[in-house]
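I am writing to request your help with a piece of structural work I have in hand. Here, with my thanks, is the record as I have it:
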Amino acid sequence: MNYNLKLRNLWIWLSVTLIMTVIVNPADAQKVRWMKFEDAYAASQKEPRKIFVDIYADWCAWCKVLDRDTFSDTGVIRILNEHYYPVKLNSESKETHTVGDNKFSSPELAASLAMLRPNESLGLPTMVIINENMQLDEMIQGFRKPDYLKERLSVFAFNKNIAQSSEKAQVKWMKFEDAVTAAQKEPRKIFIDIYADWCGWCKVLDRDTFSNPDVAKILNEQYYPVKLDAESRETHTLPDGRKISSPELAASLATSKPGEKYGLPMMIVLNEQVSILTRISGAQKPDFMTPALLFFSENHYLEKSWETYTKEYSNNIKH
């Protein structure tokens, strides 16, 4: 009798324990399998998948709420684990990250992913979605509830080419020396986009501005457009025959005096004699770049100010 009672009590204890286990640790209550950025990057090179980065800091209260209320949601967890390489990045860590051939401190990597301009502060939390081509698809700032995040994650997870889904124009980029040679045969102004692989805003400029049909058409038909990697080891030949490295050429175009620092992206317009007409910094949008390119290609700059021209341009569009 006592033996049967002990068995029954044991069975009850096991049943209660099992029930409590299911309640406290349900099968669906997994955790997001967070990775380091460099591991996510390496994994994406082998098996392409988007990268989701949660940028946080230990002092950030809303980051903790995001962890507690949003990243604990089973739907969010499932999408992140199954369709992304999810990354946790402490924006104030002393850790160093190696991404391809580049090394970044955690603050530098966070600033690059969030595409901060020089001296701009990072708001937290900030979440970014990087596509398979290492281009920014989406930036989400501040605390977001599970339903919102699931919707945004699903949009990009299940539409892999959403960032390139609409038909986009392509600029026919040239090397600097080829553009100079072409300008000598058929005079035309030269447009130079100075960029670097790590530059987030350079990627935004490519994605949102140089893919614009009006911008691409003007560059292809009225300029010799050049892409110049500011950190490439490539050597270029100047019009006078001198040899110059890409960093030296970029610096000579982007700055007015030796040793001066400059930010990226930086765009340069050269006239037919390969002299600098203007420098344009930052990820400018198509509605700025279109009139700016026409201002120089059609020689309006010779007879009127930029302010006068933009007013006329705006009025022509309205009418």
Summary: Residues 176-318 form a domain with the Glutaredoxin fold (CATH 3.40.30.10). The longest strand covers residues 50-56. Residues 11-28, 160-166 have pLDDT under 50 and may be disordered. The radius of gyration is 27 Å.
